[in-house]
Amino acid sequence: MSGPKYGKYGGQFVPEILMPALEELEEGYERYKNDPEFLKELDYYLKDFAGRETPLYHAKNMSKRYGVKIYLKREDLVHGGAHKLNNTIGQALLAKYMGKTRLVAETGAGQHGTATAMAGTNMGFQTHVYMGAKDTVRQRMNVYRMELMGAEVHPVESGSKTLKDAINEALRDWVSNVEDTHYLIGSVVGPHPYPMMVRDFQSVIGKEVKQQIMEKEGRYPDSIVACTGGGSNAMGIFHSFIEEKDVKLVAVEAGGSGMKYTKGAALHSASLSVGEEGVLQGACTRILQDKHGQILESSSVSAGLDYSGVGPELAHLSDIGRLTPRVANDDMALKAFHELSLMEGIIPALESSHAVAHVMEAAESGELGELVVINLSGRGDKDLEAVRKIDRGE
Amino acid sequence: MKLSTKFNELSSRNEAALLAYVCAGDPNIEATPAIVDALIKGGADIIELGLPFSDPVADGPTIQEASERALEAGMDPDRYFELVASLDVDVPLVCMTYYNLIFQRGLDKFVTDCVNSGISGLIVPDLPAEESEDLARSCSTNGVDLIFLIAPVTTDERIKMLLEKSSGFVYIVSRLGVTGARSDVTDATAQILSRVKTDIPKAVGFGISNGEQASKVVAAGADGVIVGSAFVDIIASGDNVNERLEELAHDIKSGCKVD
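Predict the joint structure of the above. Result:
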């Protein structure tokens, strides 16, 4: 059977060669997701290896400056410096229970590849990470980090040499080695069961927030704001609040250098805001494409948001009006990067800076309400070199 | 020409079919008609014309690069159907492309464009049977064969389900992985052929690049061999292309004659 759909989105648009593997994965996930042994081990890794739970921090200075009460969910404090490890621990553990010995993963900025290398080497896997050749240059310290932890990094020279091409190449590896290999997708994208499984593993973020905000404020927030590329940190923090209809969910996409297009490329990555229904890399979702259906390259100052598609569940939540897509461009994100660093002594990842930027822009209008939670999905250490170059006009 | 007509005709002559794949518009739109002619002259029985997609996940580097060259040359679905309609050939034509291009054009429009330009079959490698209901309906209404792939990892249960949905021929993937020329054709081919029990013609693809390999595949029970990357390699070389395509087609076709 084809996977559950999120409205008209989702599904399993993959070559026949992968269908048995997806069936096996779906069965494995259904079998272990409520298994006490599996859950106990997952909890152990999340607590003692990843460092959960992460704090919900009241950003006093930022709150004062913008006139609303702002909390930051500190996913930047997870081992590795981003929320990515929540998912890689979950999937690597599942792969172990399923008897796989090899992991393949794609990575854009290198965050997901790093998180895969961490979980992979810790649990005894041979780990292969595909990364666009352009990104291996932009993020060379992350390549080194992955290699230090025993992963083999394969630069991808095809197509636009970025995340989209890395996913294609990782899929090809999986197609060729499907018997002993688990493909560890890093976001809520791809064919079923990935969007559901990655969301579930990331949903620990929102579960914690629900408890923490009740303890601190005695109520749920008015808004939750998260940056969105593929959308795993967004789905992770949103999931527990979807039924809480009074909580506004805001997905902030990368506006890049403008909401415009050149031949074969968009200058932004806002597939939720302005993309159209289509099929990319295993799922029907909203994508950036030309009138014929060729996929457009995306663009953003932040490699982690630089993607032509978006998770199918986010596309559906947007269609039914449960979440609000918004856009923050490169300049706004860079400004927020500096401002949060100065105000709170917390350097956000460029990805998370987009969420921060939107709150800085929208808070005073009142549209986010009085109590706002921002998912600070990662720390900015990885971006220092890039931002410094931009600041110097290099 | 209908695919079934062609397979029947060949079978009565004790021959297996040579299905030759090239990407339309590679290296440029003007070159494709002569390339198709050369393949047919060499002995190709069915031509698979790829409609290039920006993200061909089921293909290896050879065909991805061909797709990039064709897209760069300006190939798009409108030009594709114009080009196909202009071909003056008496063999069945099959369109191979990815689902998003069909989806954006509209399923019915895409399929009627196939019919009007003379295409008799459609292969969509990223569309598994489970997602194919709407396209299958449109194909069946318009008399276009929708061709499914069967891989070595496909379970017997799935094979049964896929055969029920297949017409024209079934595309047997000889090994795991993506498209691309290989030096060996493994025992897996014979195994998978023996598991597919049907009257629908069985064409084997992935990794076949010469007459010797073709004759092994045919001896193992294939009704057709599908060759793509080996032809595309010749096109990519830019060296004496049409003559070498004809020679290679001739060599592979010689392996398709059943003793």
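Chain A has two domains: 13-47+84-194, 51-81+203-392.
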